[in-house]
Amino acid sequence: MCVKSAPCRRWLNGLVAHGEATMSYATLMVYINVDHVSKTLVGVAAGLTDKFSAKLIGLSALAITPPFVAEGVVIVDNASEFDIAQMKARLAEAGDKFRAVAGAGRQVEWRSAIEMVPSRGW
Predict the structure, then answer these.
(1) Separate counts of helices (H) and strands (E) for the chain
(2) Which CATH architecture has domain 6-116?
(3) How buried is residue 84: exposed, middle or buried, by Cβ count under 10 Å (0-12/13-18/19+)?
(4) Does residue 43 sit in helix, strand or coil?
(5) Domain locations in the chain?
(6) Is the pTM of this model over 0.90?
(7) Are strands 55-64 and 108-116 parallel, antiparallel or unpaired?
């Protein structure tokens, strides 16, 4: 997959033409919104990994909201096992879309996490 933006392509080609692209990257990591995998963003990242012979890592995360209690009443409860299973499924689906957009023939890795948001001690 090539970089489709003409200004970006000119910039990358200019770096190579002027010998400025002598450094290389072993890995490029790109954040992926779990609700919308941007083909443009992944395409640009994939184009850069091709330019620098790098590995592409997609990363996304979801947060579990801690319970909120006011005056002894639970206002927002912890996520249930079902909620966490849905989060895992959403992250897995985003990973599948990321891999499909990145395309075959390049080193691609998907990383995801579900973490508890720290409670505020205020």
Answers:
(1) 3, 5
(2) 3-Layer(aba) Sandwich (3.40)
(3) middle
(4) helix
(5) 6-116
(6) no
(7) parallel
Count Cα neighbours of 89 within 13 Å in the Cβ-side half-sphere: 6
Asked if 64 and 114 count as a contact pair (C-beta separation under 8 A), the reply is: yes
Two structure tokens written together for 8: 């970006």
Cα distances (angstroms) measured from residue 105 to each of 35, 64, 93, 102:
26, 35, 20, 9
Instruction: Answer for the pair 119, 66: CB distance below 8 angstroms, yes or no.
Output: yes
Coil, strand, or helix at residue 59? strand
Q: Give me 101's structure tokens.
A: 């957009």
Report d(CA 96, CA 35) in Å as an integer. Answer: 13
Side chain identity, residue 95? G
The full length of the chain comes to: 122
* Amino acid residing at 105: G
Q: How do residues 58-85 score in pLDDT, each as one tens digit?
A: 999 998 877 766 776 656 666 778 888 9
